[in-house]
Amino acid sequence: MLSLEAEPRAAEALDTTPPVIDISALTVEFPTLSGRSSTAIRELDLSIARGEIFGLVGESGAGKTTLARSLLGLPPAPGRVAAGEIRFEGQDLLRIGERALRRMRGRDLSMIVPNPRSELNPLLPVGEQIMTVARVHLGVPRREARRLALDMLRAVQIPDPERRMAALPHELSGGMAQRIVIAIALVCSPRFIVSDDATSGLDVTVQAQILELLQRLAADRGSAMLFITRDIGITAHLCDRIAVMLNGEIMELAAREDFFFRPRNPYTITLMAAFAHNEGLRRLWTRSAPPLEPAAAGRACPFLARCPLAQPRCAAERPALRELAPGHVSRCHFPVPR
Ligand SMILES: Nc1ncnc2c1ncn2[C@@H]1O[C@H](COP(=O)(O)OP(=O)(O)OP(=O)(O)O)[C@@H](O)[C@H]1O
Predict the structure, then answer these.
(1) Going by CA atoms, what residue is nearest to atom 8 of ligand 1?
(2) Which of 31, 56, 84, 113 is the most exposed place for a label (fewest CB within 10 A)?
(3) Where is the ABC transporter domain (predicted)?
(4) Residue 118 located in a structural domain
């Protein structure tokens, strides 16, 4: 059930300085055997302010992971950024070169992924793994790296951190291992964090603890966060603004209250109905959308095949994102009345 229990963070609490991350017209493509490329992210615009947690919701295949990885300059192979800009504090990450980007990853930009087991080195104590990141990226001596690692273990609420420094990943529960992954991602206090489905697979209580932790850490450090998830319910608790994405395109984007109380796009509404009321609908939602024929995909609305309100115009003309109220945009020819 959706709820907006968490206290909304006051708009004025968000910084009004230029965005930390500013993505414009980003297009990411994958080559196909036919020789034509398929578009996983299409002309996407998005900016995130300092201290803001931005939620990006999308079903399987929407392009979430492709976007997350592209933002760190690592689109999944053989994908490639075909067009657009990704500005981090004004610098275009797509044009600064691999060496500069490598220095920034882990230090200024960081990513939290699910499946901690596959992220962590199974043979190295977790404390060493956090320390290595601090030493490599911050250039601090071993003693300072150890202090930072211990501070980080305390911040992610690992009990008995001194002893846990020496633990190997398999000696920790899934929730603990995920906290270690977060500790690694945050030890250098990055100014931009991408969390890609970071809590999926954890049980609900652990998930809630980790979300609370992420929220607190982002607030304490003033980081901007892109929180990517399939679960729209999570964003209601955590995020300042939310966008819903389909087939590599943003369908609707709004501040949290507008998004949940005044959604205007039929896709967003279908998605909320599915999560709120009905297990059958929910299953339908978590299924991938049937792909459109390439010819139709170029000109039709991405939600055409499933939209209960579709009209002939939706097949003939791809809707553009339109601003319906300040800060509230939707991609639909026939926005649902407020
Ligand atoms: N390595 C790849 N090669 C070819 N196509 C890919 C590759 N990775 C992703 N794609 C395509 O890009 C599109 C977006 O996929 P992506 O994995 O980013 O979606 P997602 O929203 O993260 O899905 P999920 O929630 O299932 O992880 C899909 O159409 C997918 O088929």
Answers:
(1) 76
(2) 31
(3) 23-272
(4) no
230 lines ligand 1 (CB under 6 A): yes
Domain ranges, residue 76: 11-108+190-331
204 located within any domain: yes
pTM: 0.87
Report yes or no: 105 and 72 within 8 Å, Cβ to Cβ. yes
Q: How many domains does the chain have?
A: 1
Residue 222: CATH number of its domain: 3.40.50.300
- Which protein residue has the closest C-alpha to ligand 1 atom 11? 40
Q: How far is the CA of 280 from the centre of ligand 1 (A)?
A: 24
Contacts of 141 (CB under 8 A, 6+ apart): 135
Question: Do the domain assignments include residue 91?
Answer: yes
Query: Which stretches does DSSP call E strand in 20-117?
Result: 21-31, 37-48, 53-58, 80-88, 91-92, 109-112
- DSSP 8-class letter at 307: -
- For ligand 1, whether the C-beta of 300 sits within 6 Å is no
ipTM of this predicted structure: 0.95
Identify whether 89 is part of a domain.
Answer: yes
